[in-house]
Design goal:
The protein is of the alpha+beta class. Helices cover 44% and strands 19% of the residues. It has two domains: 71 residues, Arc Repressor Mutant, subunit A, CATH 1.10.10; 170 residues, Beta-Lactamase (2-Layer Sandwich), CATH 3.30.450.40.
Amino acid sequence: MKREKTNYIIQSVNHALDILEEFCRQQDELGVTELSNRLGLHKNNVFRLLATLESRGYVEQNKVTENYFLGVKNLELGQAFIKQIGLLRQSRPVLEALAKKCKETAYMAVARGKFVFYLDAVETRQVVKVSSRVGSRLPIFTTSVGKVLIASEPAEEIVKMIPKEGLTKFTPNTIVDKKEMLAHLKEVAEQGFAVDYEEFDVGVSCAAAPIRDYTRRVVGAISITGPASRLTHDKLDKEVVPLVVDAAKEISRRLGYVE
């Protein structure tokens, strides 16, 4: 009988990856003691794992505080991932065309757990623009791309993703009520797009649509983001949303999706 892959897991490698993932959560630097407490590992084990990761460039040590932070090797891996992902190759020309039509910044993003990761962008040439989000990790419930990425999931799975402490209120427009959010995501799934009227950043509005592959699964999202002063409710609804939806359908078609 074929053995489960979990039977082959090497604990020391698993612990090393746990350490790297801790740096993605909150702080820029972490010490041996704090990592030991967080992961429930002996200090000596944590120190040896950090020494190994440091020797390969995955973490570096602040000589003043003696704490550790992520090394440049992680960036190299991230860049390799982005270059290899087919979604990025297929979406780039569509992003360029969308940004040109809307005269605002176009993004491509994917979901990983409870967060949205922005992988690529074509920035607007306008002087006043929103800071680039490429490489950023944002909460999935408060962005238009996040909402279209999870809207197709079963309600019970969406509920599991909502933090026990509830949704965080970033602006006066952020949806924090669980029932309201579930109803909103149901609407997003039905209409095939989502908008973000200053829900994460005051003064920033967005519109997004889901990208599907040949299996009909949502694998990414494309969006337009810009200052709310330019992307008004009326402009988003009448001009931007149709263009974003068409762009998402074009990328989906390139990935083998058939309506």
